[in-house]
Amino acid sequence: MGSKAKKRVVLPTRPAPPAVEQILEDVRGAPPDDPVFIALGLDDSPGLSQRAEDTEAQQEQLYQQSRAYVAMNQRLQQAGDGLKQKCEDLWRAGEELERDVGQVKQVALPGATAASLG
């Protein structure tokens, strides 16, 4: 049978880390639309912290607007449901009123109803 001992894979040695100067040179030489800078939102221009605060304020404002929109939408849906119910109630009351008026006419004016029909 085969040996269960696993062979060790020998990895190549790691290269030496770049010097600070090399890192700075790479960062300075990268274009402003480099995906790393875009993804991280980095910028060398002054006022970065102000822009971050502005962004946070915008996000908070958008969040509050979204919450207000959702709350208003719920209120509108509830109001619409209430109006539908009241409309149905009014429609039923109108039908009932028409029946009652017809009954009153038959009781109060039995001859007038027959004359108006003929």
Please describe the structure with a list of short key phrases separated by commas or semicolons.
single chain, 118 residues, mainly alpha, 4 helices, elongated
Give a quick summary of the entry.
Helices cover 72% and strands 0% of the residues.
Distance linking N and C termini: 115 Å
Beta-strand segment tally = 0
- In terms of DSSP E residues, the strand content is under 5%
Structural class: mainly alpha
Average residue pLDDT: 83
Please tell me how large the radius of gyration is: 40 Å
Give the overall shape, derived from the CA principal axes. Answer: elongated
Compute the number of helices: 4
Task: Estimate the helix proportion, in percent.
Answer: over 70%
Order of helices and strands: HHHH
Biggest beta sheet summary: none
Topology:
Blueprint: H1 20-29, H2 35-40, H3 48-108, H4 110-117
Helix pairs in contact: 3-4
Describe the 3D structure.
This protein has 118 residues and is mostly helical. The protein is built from four helices and no strands. It is elongated, with a radius of gyration of 40 Å. The model has no long low-confidence stretch (mean pLDDT 83).
